[in-house]
Amino acid sequence: MEPAEDFIEVKEQQGPQGLIPRCANDPVSEGGDCVKQRFTETLPNGVSHSILNITDGWVADDTPAFTVPEGQYFFMGDNRDNSEDSRFPQEVGGLGFVPAEFLIGRADRIMFSSAGRSLLYFWTWRGDRFFKAVN
Q1: DSSP code for 3
Q2: Do 98 and 86 touch, CB atoms closer than 8 A?
């Protein structure tokens, strides 16, 4: 992992649930700059992607290897420090393993992404993610 320029966003309610983001520079007042350390991670196959770090030693930072049962799927969130994905069982608010019968198709595009609470808040739209191909 190589350090990259910090990711900075406004600390305000986001998404349909109106959640407030966690920040590496907390405490931050609502409306202030919420900073997350950004790194570029390069995998053994040469593929690189950005990593945002909020807290070192967070519960989701280092998880064990998982054995996914036959007929189940493991889903990893796009924000490892702030995703309640398959690393966490449903009993504690996570997604847990997902049964194959719940899958209805293959995702191949991100059609739209917004950091706002409403689709009408066009200034919170993430234009770099419109119709983006999923590899």
Answers
A1: E
A2: yes
Average pLDDT over residues 102-118: 79
Q: Which two tokens stand for residue 45?
A: 């196959």
E strand map for 23-121: 33-42, 48-53, 72-73, 98-99, 109-110
- How does DSSP classify residue 44? T
Tell me, rounded to whole angstroms, the distance of Cα 9 from its chain centroid.
Answer: 14
pLDDT in tens, 35-93: 999 999 999 999 998 888 888 877 777 778 899 999 999 998 766 666 788 998 999 88
Q: Comparing 30 with 117, which gets the higher pLDDT? A: 30
Distance, CA of 38 to CA of 36 (rounded, Å): 6
Report whether 101 contacts 127 (CB < 8 A). Answer: no
